[in-house]
Amino acid sequence: MNDDLWLHQALQQAELALPISAPNPAVGCVIVRDGELLGQGHTQQVGGPHAEVMALRDAQARGHSVRGATACVTLEPCAHHGRTPPCADALVREGLA
Q1: Contact present, 69 and 33 (Cβ < 8 Å)
Q2: Is 52 labeled as catalytic in the residue annotation?
C-alpha cells in the first residue's frame, strides 16, 4: 500500500471539511484495498456524519465491500457516543482490517 498517496488523499478530503466542520475537527478518510480507492469522505457539519461514515457510505454507493480493506484517517476514529455513534464501531462492524 502506498501510505503517502492515501494519506495525502485523506488530507485533501479533510480540507473539504474546513468550511463546514467547526467546531469539530476537519477530518478526511479514504478506504483502500489492493491499491484501489473504495470510498472517501470528510466530516460534515456538527451533528452530521464523520469522515469514516461518509467514506463507508461512498464505498457502498460505489458497490464495494470494505471487508479486509484499510481506512486511512487523518485523526483517530472516535470511540465515544455523542451526537453520532462511535466511528471505531462502524469500521469494526464493516470488517475493515
Answers
A1: yes
A2: yes
Residue 82: band (very low, low, confident or very high) from pLDDT cuts 50, 70, 90: confident
Catalytic residue among 15, 52, 76, 94: 52
CB 69 within 8 A of CB 91: no
Q: What is the pLDDT of residues 7-28, one digit of tens each?
A: 999 999 999 999 999 999 999 9
Does the pTM surpass 0.70? The reply is yes
Stated as kind and residue range, the H or E segment containing 30 is: strand 28-33
Query: Which H or E run includes 8?
Result: helix 3-17
DSSP letter, residue 20: T
